[in-house]
């Protein structure tokens, strides 16, 4: 099974940052059966990484692998849309369906 | 929802690789007008790859980046749970801006287009916090006023009832004593009301600071004259030539509050000393009380602050020292606390000294 790799960009230790990480891990556990890696980047502590990743807003999650790269903005609390936008298995539809 | 108004270009209208073609420019202009006229919020439209294809000037302002810089940059799929969600925009200079994001999806010439409307909430949140703080202060002010005014009023009410009661035969001496007590309580009430009014004026307008040359000793003696018999327990040390550059009325209020504080929380004798320094005058009001608990010192000059150790029966609004510091700062000086050597507390006040190179006595 393909291993998915994500990088989550957050800004400091805020409620929003925490919610995004919790939601991302929940989605991964639900869809990827443990076959995933999540790296959390605090853009306040590591602004150069945000610059390098051309991050315009936080929270942003970037699916690094498998290609193609995908980005989602928000705290991912809408699990259905977030799963589709991140291209998680069994989540094939338009990410904005219903918005 | 469909946003396909205006002239209809051929091919893929939102394909980033085709930017620069005349029909693309025309297309963008048309759509931009639609988007901008629809809302004053920052608008960012991204394609199915999450790349910014359009943005309005408000969005460029929010991101602190030009539209040229933003268009073609990967933003990502915006997802808002519910009506709106908050995100932080990363500003190029290193700061952040909190915005509320609403997302709508549309199709444009058969291609999906996702539109994120961004509204700056940093400022509104700041205003909200200021309002909350102001309301909190008002609530505290009302509670303190009600508490501090209630007790003397209740005492006056009881004393008046005693005087009115014809069944109680009072000796003339006793009647005089009761009237004296009523007068005393009334004077205290007037003092409290004055202090509350002063505090609300500072809150609304700040210190007025109509600065003039004020003879320090003159003001000290004038304020001691208002202190009744307690003035005998005050020792003053001040050169008659010493002048401060200060609003006279506010200087009087500072001295009154320091003296009142010394008698309310400290113990006599109270030493008031004023000395001149090259550019400042330093006034110290020291008492022989227990001093201020170390843990309370940082909050000593805050509004409505009173140390836990203070007897609950001790009257006080917790406004006096805050008034002193507010006036001191407003007059270009400062106010602070120092523990007195041995025992007691010293409350210090620094005020500006007028330039007088030819003055015979600078101490």
TrEMBL record, chain B:
The keyword ATP-binding applies. Its EC number is 2.7.13.3. It is an enzyme of class 2 (transferase). It holds the Pfam family PAS. Residues 1-18 have a biased composition (Gly residues). It is found in: Cell membrane; Membrane. CDD domains: HATPase, HisKA, PAS. It is a multi-pass membrane protein. GO terms for molecular function: ATP binding; phosphorelay response regulator activity; phosphorelay sensor kinase activity; protein kinase activator activity. One of its GO terms (biological process) is regulation of DNA-templated transcription. Residues 144-355 form the Histidine kinase domain. Gene3D superfamilies: 1.10.287.130, Histidine kinase-like ATPase, C-terminal domain, PAS domain. It catalyses: ATP + protein L-histidine = ADP + protein N-phospho-L-histidine. Keywords: ATP-binding, Kinase, Membrane, Nucleotide-binding, Phosphoprotein, Transferase, Transmembrane, Transmembrane helix, Two-component regulatory system. InterPro entries: BphY/WalK/GraS-like, HATPase_C_sf, HATPase_dom, His_kinase_dom, HisK_dim/P_dom, HisK_dim/P_sf, PAS, PAS-like_dom_sf. GO terms for cellular component: plasma membrane. This is Sensor-like histidine kinase SenX3. It comes from Microbispora bryophytorum.
